[in-house]
Amino acid sequence: MARMVILLGWMMYWNKEGKSDSNYHDIKLEEFKFNMSWNLDNSSTWAIDSNSVKEAGCIHTCQGLEFDYVGVIIGNDLKYVNGEVITDHKERAKTDSSLRGLKKMVIENPEKATKIADEIIRNTYRTLMTRGQKGCFVYCADDNLANYLLSRYEKVSNSYEPNDFFHEYIAESDQERYK
């Protein structure tokens, strides 16, 4: 049976009062009537728990793991503006510990702070989108980013030319398997 989990970057606040209540929905996409809880704090094995399909995970709960399919929700911390993908650390939830100390760094060294935040945000989504072995479904809060990603996807060719590693002809013994 295929397994799919929902994963998010840190664009939505993880409310402490709902940390152990699967009926408390931190994550809401009103336009789709989508509501979900962050992964609850009552399990150290969220990724393999049977109820994890009812909870959303983050970079910290899925890093290093693989699933059959993932659904990734990209928040407004990653956008497509004026022909380029940009990050905005101000759109991250205050509960995001990966950017701890950034406010102080922005004052002391804004260029360095922006570069570090950019790398963390991009790496977060790259990691989340590579957790699905069979597929990845993506929702973007930013419509421009959604359109950009779709245009990039449409440019990808799914046909391969024969080469040393891929042969046009299938061995006779394997023909039944590939029908």
What attributes characterize this protein structure?
single chain; 179 residues; 6-stranded mixed beta sheet; two-stranded antiparallel ribbon
Uncertain runs with pLDDT below 50, 5 residues or more? none
Mean pLDDT: 77
Radius of gyration: 20 Å
Strand order in the largest sheet: 2-3-4-1-5-8
How would you describe this structure to a colleague?
- The chain has 179 residues and is of the alpha/beta class.
- The protein has one domain.
- The chain is built from four helices and eight strands.
- It has helices at residues 59-62, 102-108, 110-129, 143-155, and strands at 4-8, 27-29, 34-38, 55-57, 67-74, 78-81, 84-87, 132-140.
- A six-stranded mixed sheet has the order 2-3-4-1-5-8.
- β6 (78-81) and β7 (84-87) form a beta hairpin.
- α2 (102-108) packs antiparallel against α3 (110-129).
- It is globular.
Summarize the structure.
The chain has 179 residues and is of the alpha/beta class. The protein is built from 4 helices and 8 strands; from the N terminus they run ββββαβββααβα.
Topology (elements, then pairings):
Elements: E1 4-8, E2 27-29, E3 34-38, E4 55-57, H1 59-62, E5 67-74, E6 78-81, E7 84-87, H2 102-108, H3 110-129, E8 132-140, H4 143-155
Parallel strand pairs: 1-4, 1-5, 3-4, 5-8
Antiparallel strand pairs: 2-3, 6-7
Helix pairs in contact: 2-3
